[in-house]
Amino acid sequence: MVDRAENSQMQRTFVPPIYNVTICGGTHGNELTGVYIVREMQKQKMEKAGSVSVTTVETNPRAVAAGRRYTEMDLNRCFTDVLLSSPITESTPYEVKRAQELNAQLGPKGSAKAVDLLIDLHNTTSNMGLCFIFYSIDWITLHIYKYIENNLNSVPVRAIQLDIPSSEAYSLESVGKHGFAIEVGPQPSGVLRADIFNVVKEALDLTLQWLQKFSSGHSFEGGTVDAYTFVKSVDYPRDSAGKATAIIHQDLQDNDFKLLRSGDPIFQTFSGDILKYEGEDLYPFFVNECAYYEKKIAFHLAQKKTYSFPHISVKND
Amino acid sequence: MVDRAENSQMQRTFVPPIYNVTICGGTHGNELTGVYIVREMQKQKMEKAGSVSVTTVETNPRAVAAGRRYTEMDLNRCFTDVLLSSPITESTPYEVKRAQELNAQLGPKGSAKAVDLLIDLHNTTSNMGLCFIFYSIDWITLHIYKYIENNLNSVPVRAIQLDIPSSEAYSLESVGKHGFAIEVGPQPSGVLRADIFNVVKEALDLTLQWLQKFSSGHSFEGGTVDAYTFVKSVDYPRDSAGKATAIIHQDLQDNDFKLLRSGDPIFQTFSGDILKYEGEDLYPFFVNECAYYEKKIAFHLAQKKTYSFPHISVKND
Hints:
Two copies of one chain form a homodimer. Helices cover 25% and strands 27% of the residues of chain A. Chain A has seven helices and 15 strands. Chain A folds into two domains: 2-227 and 308-314, 3-Layer(aba) Sandwich (Aminopeptidase), CATH 3.40.630; 233-300, Single Sheet (N-terminal domain of TfIIb), CATH 2.20.25. In chain A, helix 2 crosses helix 7 (194-215). In chain A, the strands form three sheets. Chain A has a ten-stranded mixed beta sheet with strand order 3-4-2-5-8-6-7-9-14-13. In chain A, strands 10-11-12 form a three-stranded antiparallel beta sheet, with no helix packed on it. The longest helix of chain A has 22 residues, at 194-215.
């Protein structure tokens, strides 16, 4: 890894231009920061950042109107190849139809017609600060991430990598040639906090600044990014009827990304007993995320890995 | 006021016994602390605290199952005399019917048959710590409040008084002969936090402890309680179409009960302007409560008042 990082920092890599970026909000209808950021950008008629064209989409307007994460199915699990190509019938959930519409508008996923960069804005009830979430180790994404990490100081900034092939990548950002989700919390579902709104706005301003610099010929030095790579999910303990018997222990609550070691408390049963973690040292994230109760996920666990990325410049036509 | 307080501390007042207490949760289906406290008490078959009989009720099971505040109408606005006596038709909302059922079971409101003490458990997304909310200045409520204020140290404890006559009192606790809501936050809707769960459990344990002492003949000294008395609500600024144009300013966010003075920032518009408070010095509470967006309430404002209460003992039959 070190050899490759050093090597990549010396050699400059030329990468294709980013002509357009699409910023999406409201993929989950009760994660309000993205909804209101997108609406404000539409009101301000923001269409260009330098030579890069900027579009915005409110992706699940029905769920936004209902004030809920989704109406029939989680939209952000609908962008797999299987669901994007499934035939539409009367019983097809609204969100599957909407995913296919979005794929036609912003993709098709994996094609030359897809938008160059797709950014999807999310919130979490977990204390995760600002996270970039992405599938592939992609130079553009890692460079933008590094630029934000270096320039945004109001909250912790972290990278989360989901090691899933593109065909099975289930979330909206996988539709773009490059793409990532910006996940910011803690913010309750259905609530809009000014601090979170301002952080996301700052992250987007920095992203557009980076894109302007990149498209105007600025070259960016290589380096490394520490990313949390998803390992597994942990469910709540349950009784024989399948009902949860415990809640996240208060020592784990709000401690996303703090290394969890064998013996650390993770759950408190409703009757007051403490349950401890057993297993290899890993980093918890999405701790006590509201929307994951129904998915039977109390928290995710990750390994920390270092990825190197090269010095890059735009490849002119 | 001072004369009355001193006087009340010297004279002992004898008040009727509390034979029974009902603890309610799930009046708002996505405020989970009460739901799980009540379920755990039912599982433990807790039926007595000394000589005081204890019952528990999950008050809006349909809303709990749906994971929403309510299904058709806010249940905790249905306990006015008008709604409790309105004829049931096919178009009557579920929650009005449920309020009438609960009134038959736990009331009738204002009657000798009503439960002696009704405690309703709530959560808020606002940073309010633990609050007692009540209508009338009632010796039992003030004594229990004082006992909790003196013995619970993990979060700030405050009293909120709503100066509304009983006939118009709209919330469940008004059905009991004595009654108060315990409102604890911040906790996102649909999320269960261990710290909040433990605080509410501690407050209930202290309440039951007080009731045991009182019913066994212990007398309690008089004193004073500082309570925040509701003055008015403040809406978000809106455009000509009625849409909110701003969010709570980050200096006001999480600063419930911090005196608001003319000139203090209260809103940030989506385009970044700051709007300031104008008016008399008052105390904000329910700042950025999720459920109040639809009620057009950004925050409430209160005056702080001091109420005295007498030295009391139980009046034996």
